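Quick question, first post here. What does this chain look like in 3D?
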Amino acid sequence: MEFSNRFLALGDSFTEGMGDVDVARPNQVRGWADRVAEQLCADPGWGYANLAIRGKKTGQVVSQQLSPALELKPTLATLYMGANDILRPRIDIDTLMVGYRKMALALADTGATLLLFTGFDTGGSGIFSSTRGRTAIYNEAVREIADEAGATVADYWRWREFQDWRYWSSDRLHMNSAGHTLMASKVLEVLEHQTRIKVPELPAEAQVSRSQKLREDAAWAKEHLMPWVKRRLTGTSSGDDLSARFPHYVSLEAAQNP
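> Answer (accepted):
Ran it through. Tokens below.
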């Protein structure tokens, strides 16, 4: 099927949809990009492809996704990458952004509308707060590249709603369904596209005692942090055996459950 408007989503777990579980979909996730696509595809002529795969670092996104992205000739492209690099023990942001700039400019040169994301402010996220300075430097580089490429910026860093941890999944790394829904609504606003997405009401904030919080932190470390650290040490990724969810354009219908 030929589409006159083509939305292409690129990057890592953020764009793949991790945290927004949907067992009926490829890789068993839905995510903000699917939700945006459902809205766009409600209008005639829109197609959607998503090449993002969890765990990918910037160099991998560039080497594995740029060439197929150019072949897909998008009219709208979104790009988020770099978080998996920033979380490493050592990182040279300047070198990291050389690859980022290469990919952003190549996408912009296609004539597509390009949307880039700043990184999330981890200042209130406990163990990951140490990466806050790195992310701030990364964000300034993203904004400079956006200016050069004529791209639009989705400023995740400044969207303070996401500081509410009720928008996050149990792994504390990815947004949950409510978070992905809010992100989809934000992205459509940035794109100046009328949104019919209804962001769900959050559950009441639970009152947790100090002892209970310690137990929850210990359970989280065992279930999520230790496997994550092990993958870092062994050079493996949760996305090593996965393929792109939508490698070719599809017309994505809205899910029955919002």
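The chain has one domain: 5-200+211-250.
Residues 153 and 218 are 37 Å apart (CA to CA).
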